[in-house]
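tool=predict chain=A
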Amino acid sequence: MSGKVGSITTGIIADGLVFNMDAANRASYPKTGTTATDTVNNNVGTLNGTTFISTTGSGIFDFDGADDYINCGNDSSLEITGNFTISAWVNLRNFTNSYNRLIGKANTANNRCNYGIGFYGYKPGIIANESGTWLVFPSGYNSTALSIGVWSHIIGVYDGTNVLFYINGSLDTTSSASGFNIATAASATSGQNLYIGATTAGAENFHGDIGPIHIYNHALSANEVLHNYNALKDRFN
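tool=predict ok
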């Protein structure tokens, strides 16, 4: 993927990419201000307390675990009705709450979630809800816990049948996605905003640093996941 003028070219897979927010990409965030831009569909995210740090990977966003988040709005490009992939580079600090939200398009008041990634302890998982019952893949957050203070690349892939979760380019868990109808979930959350670093209610606040976040409207293959990991790992390792 080639970036706009002044941006960092990452070389990630471009096919199906619908959201790309990267603090190191000057077309996404110009090192200052309270707005960050998704460089694919020009969705504007409003920073609420979130701070920019330039010393890691030429730019990351820092979340204090108390009240920081980025509100990215509810443009139609953020509504996904089929397969999807969510990826992010994260560096965790101590969580004060059991549940923490990395990203999500949800309506917690009406108990619905189109898609998201959350943590229980330090274990990441895909979050979904289309019928009033919260679902996590892998079930029970049965993924490998991430190390505190270490950059990790996490990718959740929903292929319509299963959720595959990758950590640092390698498959960590596979679980059945039975019981989830994403089209129904998308309809229930079409008017809801995409949040980074918290739920829609500002709860479950993420504590740590976040690098590039990418959302695709299809399921990346294992080779594509590894490609994206390799494209950015030198910035964080």
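Residues 114 and 185 are 5 Å apart (CA to CA). Confidence is low (pLDDT under 50) at residues 1-7.
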